[in-house]
Amino acid sequence: MRDNIHTLEVWGDFACFTRPEMKVERFSYPIITPSAARGIFDAIYWDGMRDKEGKREIVRPYFYWQVTRIEILEMPRFIALRRNEVKGVVPGTATLNKWMGGKEQPEPLWADGDDEGKGRTQRQTMALKNVHYRITARIQPRPSHRDQLAKLNASFERRARQGKCFQQPYFGCREFPAFFEYVERDAIGAAVVLLDQHVGWMLYDVFDLANDAPGLDGKPSISVFDATIKGGVVEVPDYGSDLVRKPIKGAVC
Fold it and tell me: Which domain holds residue 41?
């Protein structure tokens, strides 16, 4: 750990960081998004789970991961895939809570059936192959837990060095697993690719990271930023920066 800065080297066979404007057919950004990068760090250490009476429960987390730098170690290469996807969608949080509480009978998502609105369909995916990144992030503690920063850093460093994670990290889609290695201080790693590209408006995150419990209320909050690759590196602005466009609270569309 270097002054609350951690770096991971991550790689995998496939990845898909879907552009939201592409609607039904998935089309990946040429590089990993800050949201997907944050998800990899979260999979290793996210302090939003507690043990209570022998059961794991989700609580308000002490911190969130602020991605600061993405280094591209393998030139982006696309691959066209066709996948069978289920047409149905998971219902909202209120319905899921009723299912889990036994108040309503759960309704399955059928992969086959005569109903045109259900079943499965074949969709095109423009994914990435043989991805390799070096990602740097820092722990951003909540105001009430700033005194625990040293403990949080030590816990993540220990887990990452040992290759531990509470769920398999993935590159955009769960069927595209990500593998990781903690980058030690002053380590000489793989060289970044020589790539300069203006990516344009790119998804930053799908939750309000400034919220005390981002994502736990089930409400999405889409943010974007103008991404540019310079010398194979993307410098990611802080979530609170004016460079990150966020929804205006209270605005009516």
Answer: 5-81+126-245
User: Quick one: 117 and 205 in the same domain?
Assistant: no
Residues 161 and 216 in one domain: yes
Say what the pTM is: 0.83
- Phi/psi for 112 (5° steps) reads -140, 155
Residues 115 and 224 in one domain: no
CATH number of the CATH domain containing 218: 3.30.70.2660
212-215: Cβ within 8 A, 24+ apart: 212/60, 212/142, 213/48, 213/60, 213/61, 214/61, 214/64
What digits encode the pLDDT tens for the residues 124-166? 899 999 999 999 999 998 877 778 888 889 999 999 999 999 8
- Domains in the chain, number: 2
Kindly report the backbone phi and psi dihedral angles of residue 69, in degrees, each rounded to the nearest multiple of 5, phi listed first.
Answer: -155, 135
Asked whether residue 98 falls in the same domain as residue 179, the answer is no
How remote is the C-alpha of 99 from its chain's centroid?
Answer: 27
Tell me whether strands 197-205 and 233-235 are parallel, antiparallel or unpaired: unpaired
Q: Cα–Cα distance between 152 and 8 in angstroms, integer?
A: 16
Between CA 172 and CA 39 the distance in angstroms is 9
Distance between CA atoms of residues 33 and 205, nearest Å: 8
- Tens of pLDDT, residue by residue over 11-36, are 999 999 999 888 778 899 999 999 99
Could you tell me which residues come within 8 angstroms of residue 53 by beta carbon, excluding any fewer than 6 positions away?
none
